[in-house]
Amino acid sequence: MSDKKLFYYRGFPLIRSGDKIYYGSAGDEFATLLTIKDTKKVADKDVPNKIMVQMLPTDMGNKEGMAKARKGEYVGFYEALDTAHVWLTEVLFG
Length: 94
Fold this sequence. Notes:
The protein is α+β, with helices and mostly antiparallel strands. It has 2 helices and 6 strands.
């Protein structure tokens, strides 16, 4: 897939597959996974409501990276995505 077709939010790529949204680059030490747990109707459209955010190392064999992993559940897509961004920038640019 060409980078020209990816959607970026604050410098990191967003890739959606069903109810899962991957935020971050696989080439970085960490990336986040946003899982849509619940949706609500807004103007006849389903929009994400409850979202679980997980920050995981891209190398699952890295024990130090696993110690920095985070997880939380948020209400509202913006709150979840903004949290994912803060987590990524803290761990990558610290």
